[in-house]
Design goal:
Protein name: WW domain-containing oxidoreductase
Shape: globular
Distance between the termini: 40 Å
GO molecular function: oxidoreductase activity
Radius of gyration: 20 Å
Strand order of the largest sheet: 3-2-1-4-5-6-7
Family: Belongs to the short-chain dehydrogenases/reductases (SDR) family.
Keywords: Oxidoreductase
Organism: Hordeum vulgare subsp. vulgare
Strand content: 5-15%
Helix content: 40-55%
Amino acid sequence: MAGDLRHRRPGGADAGGEEGDGGAEEAAAKAGPPSGVEEAGAERGRKEALGWLEWSRGWMGVVGEFFFQRIAASHLANPLELPPLDGVSVIVTGATSGIGLEIARQLAQAGAHLVMAVRRPKVAHELIQKWQNEQTEVSMPLNIEVMELDLISLDSVARFADTWNARMTPLHVLINNAGIFTIGEPQRFTKDGYEEHIQVNHLAPALLAMLLLPSLIRGSPSRIINVNSVMHTIGFVDAEDMNLTSGKHKYKSWLGYSNSKLAQVKFSSIFHKRIPAEAGVHIVCSSPGIVHTNVARDLPKILVAGYRFIPYFIFDPQEGSRSTLFAATDPQVPEYCETLKSEDWPVCACINYDCNPMNASEEAHNLETSQLVWEKTLEMIGLPSDALEKLIEGEPVQCRYGQQKAE
């Protein structure tokens, strides 16, 4: 069983917050998001990097998660027990491998109408056949469909959203799971002109969530779940250098990845604050923990050694799926999100790998830079600054990508 979310704030905030998260954060929370880019905020937004203390604390969190995640999550069942999901429509991106595969399989087996939004439809159809064969003869057929979606192309994202919205059917849960971590490889850019990590891990999911708002409002109460990472704690986002091309810092794949994950938290936080309660759309970032994959080569040597020689500490994909499944299905989550909003907490709801609230990094609490990331992201994904308000009101919004208007 997971803990009771409803009357809790993240990271022990009821007791005054974690070290470094106290009075300044509370003052920022009470102040609310800035109405514009003020001079002082812009100055803060242009600082070149995290301070060494923040950066060191972030890496300590990564190492601590590696060694203690299994102990912290020992109270959770594996697989996580899910409620019946008949009549619930869920879109899962990146549903053919890793954590996404486990998320998709368990949601389908719980009765959800699952939409596998994937780059390789053939692989998805093979998985569906395998899962169906594993069902007992008395079980109902799985309610799964496959739709093509390639996050490396923002045109593909816009077309996917147009196709789904045209059905005029409700969407109850969007799980932005798909992501990349191109370990040790040189910096690469998409055809849209954006660094691959920032596009696949942040820009494409942001565009998808924005354009699917009409369907999510039809499915209210509904949820947007962004699969994030503890690596966001070592990231820093310069809204004027999202592509990491200014030369201020030497490009490293871990830097591109961590920055993209922090950008996702920052954008989600402003998104969460701007959606009115009556819309009934709730936004959560979930952290799966450190999961057994082949992406360890660019991490600190102690973690690399752990991946090779201490597999006990690392989650398998089924264990790594639990926090996202919890965020997507637990009945406490909407009330928890509304509690944070009513208290003007500066960050969206974040669920840790142990299915309990977590506090995002200190940098994630910086509302000025979060506002800058929000504005820059809308510009990069081809939406006007008032897109959210128009979509909530049911008005058409012109997107630079795709072939049609988002309605």
